[in-house]
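Each record in this resource describes a single protein on a pair of labelled lines. An example record follows, reproduced without changes.
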Amino acid sequence: MADEFDLHICCMGAGYVGGPTMAVIAAKCPKVRVCVVDLSQKQIDAWNSPDLPIYEPGLPEVVAQCLGKNLFFSTDIDAEIKKADIVFISVNTPTKTMGIGAGRAANVKNCELCARKIAEVSESDKIVVEKSTVPVRTAQAVRRVLDCNERGLKFQVLSNPEFLAEGTAIPDLMSPDRVLIGGVQGISFKSHLPKTPEGIAAAEKLAGVYANWVPREQILTTNLWSSELSKLVANAFLAQRVSSINSISALCEATGANVSEVSRCVGMDERYRKAFPKFVDRFWRQLFPEGYTEPRILVRDLRPPGVRRLLEPGHSDE
C-alpha cells in the first residue's frame, strides 16, 4: 500500500512549544504526517482529548482540525522515530541546579537523552532538528551522539529555534515574522566553513515544510552556531528592554509621568519594530531564565573584546 504522506515528522516533547508548533505544521501541510511523542501518558492523553494540556487562543480549533488525520500524539516513541524523516527535539532545558554552571547554565540532559534514543532506534538516515532553547554548539554534542549509532546511519543536525509569545502562539506560528534554520557546516569551532551538500539539502527540506505558508524571504538560513546564538540573543535583548522600562518607571514616579503611556509612546517608534514591553515587576529572571543567562555565560567564558558589559542586567537594582 502506497504511503499517503509525502513526509513523516516526529516531535519529541509534547509541551508548550512542540504541541502548538506541530499542530500548525499539520494544519498547513496536509500531506505531512506529524506525530508528537512524550514519555508522559497523562500529557499525551490530554492532547488527544478536548481538554488540552495548555491554553492558547485558537489552539483547540487547530488541533481538532487535524487530529487523527495527519496529526497524532503518542507514547510509542521508538515506532514514531523509526517512521520519521525529520525528528524535532523540543524538550525542556532548565537551568542547572548542581555542578559546573549551577544556577546559570542550561541543563541539556534531556536533549542528549533524545539524541541517544534517536541513534538507538533509527533504521534510516534522518534530519534531527533542535527546537529547544540550547547553549551555542549544543548541535555539536547532539551530532557526536548521533554519529555513534551502530548501523552507520547518517544524520543531519539543524537548529530551528522558536520565537513564540505566550498568549499569541498560534498567530505567531501562522504568521511568523521570520523562521530561522541553522544548517550543518562541518562540526568545528572555526567560523567560516563551506556548507556540506547534505547540510544544504537538509536545511532546504525543512525550509520546504515552512514554505507551505511562510514566504521564502522570511525563511532565514544561517550556520548552526548563528541560529543557536540568535535565539539566546533575542531573549537577552527582550530582557534588557524589560529592564529598561522598569528603570524608566522610577523616573515616571519621580516626575508624575505614567509608565504605561511612556512605554506605549516609545513603542510606537518603528525603529523598535515591535511594541516596547509593558512594565513588568522583577523582570528577567522570571521571563527568560535560560535564554538570558546563556549569553552572559558565553561572554564570561570566551571574553570577547569590547562586549564585557553587553549583556549585564542593565538597570537592575540587585
Remarks:
- The domain at 7-229 is CATH 3.40.50.720 (Rossmann fold).
- The two ends are 64 Å apart (CA to CA).
